[in-house]
Amino acid sequence: MDKVSWEFFKLQAFGSRSSNNNLEMEERGKNFVHKLKGSPFAAKTIGHLMRRNLDTTHWSNILNSGLWKWDIMEIFTR
């Protein structure tokens, strides 16, 4: 995961470059960034969606869902 992708995702998900030092949210956020494979469009879209519910359990449920079985880049580049 590159730093630029992480900073961009944080901005989308948290509304700033800070996650308020919530290490659990940062860990999950970094997992999203890894799964999004550096796509800025995907980071913006998923970040905005995740911003609606800043709960670690919710984020974990999304990360562990079947969504990630699909090729995310194929979805966002159609």
Mean pLDDT: 86
Category from helices, strands and their pairing: mainly alpha
β-strand amount: under 5%
The level of helicity is 55-70%
Termini, distance in Å?
24 Å
In the predicted model, the low-confidence regions spanning at least 5 consecutive residues are none
- What is the number of beta strands? 0
Distinct helical segment count: 5
SSE pattern: HHHHH
How would you describe the oligomerization state of the chains in this entry?
A: single chain
Question: Could you explain how this protein is built, in words?
Answer:
- The chain is an all-alpha fold.
- The chain is built from 5 helices and no strands.
- The model has no long low-confidence stretch (mean pLDDT 86).
- The longest helix is centred in the middle third of the chain and has 13 residues, at 23-35.
- It has helices at residues 3-14, 23-35, 40-51, 56-63, 72-76.
In short:
By secondary structure, the protein is mostly helical. Helices cover 64% and strands 0% of the residues.
